[in-house]
Amino acid sequence: MGVTEKMWDAITTVIRMNDKIERMADTMVNQQRKIEQLNERVIRLETALEIALSQGGKVQRRITRTD
After folding, report:
1. H/E element holding 3?
2. What are the residue boundaries of the structural domains of the chain, listed by start?
3. CA-to-CA distance for 2 and 8, rounded, in angstroms?
4. What string of DSSP letters covers 6-62?
5. What is each CA distance from 19 to 5, 10, 33, in whole angstroms?
6. Residue 52: which residues within 8 A CB-CB, separation 6 or more?
7. pLDDT tens digits, residue range 4-46?
8. Global pTM?
9. Rounded-to-integer distance, Cα 41 and Cα 55, Å
10. For 48-67, how does the pLDDT look when each residue is reduced to its tens digit (9 = 90+)?
C-alpha cells in the first residue's frame, strides 16, 4: 500500500467519523429536547398534585396530555 493510498484511507476514515459524530450530536439534541419536555410534564403533575392535596381533594380536575 502506497503513501497515497494510506492518506486516502485516513481522509475517508475522518470523513466517516465526522458523519457519525454529526448524527450522534443530532440524536443527543433530540433526546435532550424530550427530557426537557418530560421535566415540564412532571412539574405540571407535581403542581396539580400539590393543589389537590392543599384543597383536601375537594376539587377533581382532569389532567390532559399535551404533546
Report:
1. helix 3-54
2. 1-55
3. 10
4. HHHHHHHHHHHHHHHHHHHHHHHHHHHHHHHHHHHHHHHHHHHHHHHHHTTT-S--P
5. 21, 14, 21
6. 59, 61
7. 999 999 999 999 999 999 999 999 999 999 999 999 999 999 9
8. 0.60
9. 21
10. 999 989 887 565 556 677 76
Q: Under a CB-based contact definition with an 8 Å cutoff, are residues 63 and 48 in contact?
A: yes
Residue whose C-alpha cell is 497515497: 4
Cell 502506497 sits at which residue?
Answer: 2
Q: How many CB atoms within 10 Å of residue 13?
A: 10
Q: Which residues contact 41 (CB under 8 A, 6 or more apart)?
A: 66
Nearest to 41 by CA among 53, 24, 33: 33
Query: Would you give the DSSP letter of residue 4?
Result: H
